[in-house]
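quick q for whoever's on today - can somebody do inverse folding on this one?? i tried earlier but teh output was garbage lol. tokens:
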């Protein structure tokens, strides 16, 4: 498992980092976002969508479980599984079928961990105790497939101007 820690000093930092991060995403990539309410998960998703020119399309999928976006025949699926009781409900909606068909971004993915593919990127969001506006993003690979992707994360951060 490879890990990188990004320290965001603002919502803009989070958006810009996510946009850099998205530059390497492709079909079949799964990104799991974990963290408390208001920790930056949806803002990060907004940054990913902005890379694909979809920044004005984002809406919280909280009540629909999944929102689907498409740019240049690249489907992006944004899940919020917070309201699911367990992974059986994820299977009931055919959730695992999305993994092969596009980029999947799953908020609260730890709730359905047993339904996730064996390789994915996990990002834990937390607040910095010293500054309430700062966020700590711990980005790690689950399985070996994304080790090299995680190794690129310092470059993404450096492209923001010295984070």
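ok took a stab at it. sequence:
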């Amino acid at each position: 498992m490879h890990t990188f820690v990004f320290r965001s000093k603002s919502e803009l930092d989070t958006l810009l980092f996510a946009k850099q991060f998205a530059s390497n995403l492709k079909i079949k990539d799964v990104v799991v976002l974990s963290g408390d309410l208001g920790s930056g998960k949806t803002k990060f998703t907004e940054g990913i969508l902005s890379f694909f020119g979809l920044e004005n399309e984002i809406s919280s999928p909280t009540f629909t479980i999944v929102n689907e976006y498409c740019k240049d025949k690249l489907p992006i699926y944004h899940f919020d599984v917070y309201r699911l009781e367990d992974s059986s409900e994820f299977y009931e909606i055919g959730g695992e079928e999305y993994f092969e068909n596009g980029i999947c971004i799953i908020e609260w993915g730890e709730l359905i961990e047993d339904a996730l593919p064996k390789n994915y990127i996990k990002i834990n969001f937390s607040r910095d105790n010293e500054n309430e506006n700062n966020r700590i993003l711990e980005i790690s690979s689950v399985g070996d497939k994304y080790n090299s992707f995680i190794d690129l994360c310092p470059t993404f951060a450096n492209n923001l101007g010295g984070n």
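fwiw The longest strand covers residues 131-142. also The mean pLDDT is 88. so keep that in mind when u check it
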